[in-house]
Structure formats: C-alpha cells, structure tokens
Amino acid sequence: MLTERQNLILKHIVDAYSQTGEPVGSKYLADHLPIKVSSATIRNEMSVLSHNHFIEQVHTSSGRVPSYQGYRYYVDHLTEPIPLEMKARDYITETLDDSFKQIDDIVKQSADLLSQITDYTALTFAPTLQSQDVVESFRLTQINHQNFMAIMMMKSGLVQSQPFLTEEALTPGSSAKVEAWLNQHLRNQPLAAVTRSLENEVAHGGQPLADFTQIVNAFMMVASKLQHDQFFVSGRSNLFHGMGAEAFANLKPLYSSLSSAADLATILQPSGRDVSVRLGVELPNDLWRNYSIISGTYDAGEHGTGRIAVIGPTRMFYPRVMGLVDAFRDELQTRIRSYYHDYDQ
User: Fold this and answer.
1) Cβ neighbours of residue 21 under 8 Å, at least 6 residues apart?
2) At residue 342, does pLDDT exceed 70?
3) Distances in whole angstroms, Cα of residue 96 to Cα of each of 42, 43, 303, 334, 338
4) Where's the Winged helix-turn-helix transcription repressor HrcA DNA-binding domain (predicted)?
5) Dist CA 342 CA 340 (whole Å)
6) Interacting residues of 338 by C-beta distance below 8 A, sequence separation 6+
7) Is there a shared CATH topology between the 4-78 domain and the 135-226 domain?
8) 241 by DSSP, 3-state: which?
9) What is the mean pLDDT of the segment spanning 59-76?
10) What pLDDT was estimated at residue 101?
11) Which of 235, 320, 310, 281 is nearest to 18 (CA)?
12) Residue 147 belongs to what H/E stretch?
C-alpha cells in the first residue's frame, strides 16, 4: 500500500490528467496539493510511484501520467462517486417524465440523457425477462396498405413489436381473424410455449393460420426479440472524442460490438457492486483497451435486473461519471418498480 502522501499525489495526478490531458509535473503538484511540500520531495515521491508502476513518463516530458495500475488503484482506493447536486437530480427527474408507455421507453430515454450529459457513449439494458413471464396479448396493427406491425405484450409490462410487409393486402376482417385466434389460443401462456406453438404452425401449416405465414413469422420474430436482452446505445460517435487515428481505424468493429448483445455481455459482467469500473486493458476484446466502462445494476424486484453503463476514454473524470451512473441507476430502479406497481394493481 502507498503512504498517505503518495496517495494524495497519485490522486492529484489522475484528477489533473483526467481534466487537462496534459502530463502532470512536480511544480503543478506543489502549487495544488492541500499540504505544504517541496518540489524536491514531490519528485522523490513521484519516483517511488513510477518505480512501482503507478505512473509513467510519456515522451520527453518531465510530467507523468497514470498507468493502468495507477488508474486501478485510484478507482479502488482513492475515489468515490460524487453525489449529484439537487439541481442536477431534479433535471434528470423532470426530463425522465412519466409519459412513457412501456418499459423500453424509459430505458431508451435514460441512455439518451446519460449520453447527452456525459458526452460519452451510454448503454442501458431493460430488465431481464423472467422465465415465468407470460404473454398478455397479441395485437396486429395496420400501418398502410400492405405494411403491418405485430405487437406482443407481456404480463410484466414488456412490449415488443416487429413491422412487416405482406405480399397481398390484408382485409380488416382477415387481420382481425388472425389477431383473435392468437389471443384465444396463445395468450396467458409462457413465452417459450408460445414460441413452440408458432413454430408448429409454420411447420405444419395448421388452420386457420395456413394462409397467414407472414404474420406468424412476424410474431415469431417478436418472441425472439423478447427472449434476448433488450438494450439501447446512445452517442456512438462519442467513442471518437479525444481519440487518435487508431480509434477511427477500428470504427467498424467498435460499432459492430455495440450492436451485439453477446459482445456487450463480455464487457458488462456483473461485479456485485452497485457501480463498478472496468478498464479497457482488463477486457477480453483489445478494441476497448483505450476506454473504461462504468456500469451499474438496477433492481426491478421480481421483474428482474437491468444494467446501465457509460463508455469513455481511460482518462475520464471517474468520480463524476460514477456519480451519474449511480443516479441513473437509482432513477431507473425507482421508475420501473413504480411502473410495475401501477401495472400490477
């Protein structure tokens, strides 16, 4: 472990570098440390930190920047989330108003707002679908002449949809007939059972759905979406703020990873903490080595748990972003629990 003075110097190096992007020297520290200490003493302490791989020198500058080990020590021992001021919390609460009609609305809106406030990339995952969740109803909505929307609503309040195009125009009577059959035979069943029934209809062409394969396929796609993690990404282009040409060279694979629930699962592994930090070099995918991921888990009670995260450069100002993630985690938890409470009444 480091001494109290070494802790103080390392903390100020990380904080200063996070805000300016410039290597930090002994003169800066002598002017800004809350204790009176000479530049010579600071240089000696920085030499110890450097020898132990907490800081490193870049190019020929006399200043130092945090190393991976320095960031890890800083996050684990030297900083905590900065609680949001009441004005900021009120802004989040007011922006995330109660006008959303389904869980996806508040989850997506949270990603958009978190990205806007931080200027980083934000991710939000809806609560995981519970195995006992059953289908509340099916709905078939006509958009125009041959465009329709297949909508499936779950007892838990989750709603998913899939637009599709029919080869021939459906009459209102035909679409109503299909919707009525689905609600009569498949509603109030677990999603897995509904999926099997729909697959059986496609395989065997049973009546009365034999002439409506496109509709059945659309509802199968809806069921598939519900069985996979529902997530939203906002501020993708923020990945390249302050990054060099190397980041742009990885643009396509980075964007691809942000579109894959499987890829995101590898970088958002639960830590057991309300808010956790993973540094890029700790991640299995080398694409993220210059980034850090601050994530939090929110608990929707019996309706499952969800995730919220911010992806930013390694030198982000961790206390502020950790505080924001914690605030959004708390807001999502409160709002989604309230939604389910009202829905279950």
Assistant:
1) 242, 315
2) no
3) 47, 48, 20, 12, 13
4) 1-61
5) 5
6) none
7) no
8) coil
9) 90
10) 62
11) 320
12) strand 147-154
**Burial (0-12, 13-18, 19+ Cβ within 10 Å), 342:** exposed
- For the domain bounded by 4-78, which CATH number is listed? 1.10.10.10
Burial of 26 (0-12, 13-18, 19+ CB in 10 A): buried
Phi, psi of 305 (to 5 degrees): -125, 155
By DSSP bridging, strand 159-165 and strand 147-154 are antiparallel
> Which CA distances in Å does 2 have to 14, 56, 245?
15, 16, 36
How does residue 44 score in pLDDT terms, banded at 50, 70 and 90? very high
Domain positions in the chain are: 4-78, 86-128+229-344, 135-226
Joined together, the tokens standing for residue 213 give 């394969």
By the 10 Å C-beta count (0-12 exposed, 13-18 middle, 19+ buried), 214 is classed as middle
Provide the 3-class DSSP secondary structure of residue 224.
Answer: helix
What's the gap between Cα 116 and its chain centre?
14
> Residue 293: what pLDDT?
95
Please give the structure tokens belonging to residue 188.
């109030």
Q: What is the fold of 135-226?
A: Enolase-like; domain 1 (3.30.390)
Q: What are the start-end ranges of the H helices in 21-151?
A: 26-32, 39-51, 68-73, 86-95, 103-118
- Token reading at 260: 């894959």
Mean pLDDT of the chain: 85
92-146: per-residue pLDDT in tens? 888 887 666 677 788 889 999 999 999 999 999 888 766 567 899 999 888 877 7
Fold of 86-128+229-344: Beta-Lactamase (3.30.450)
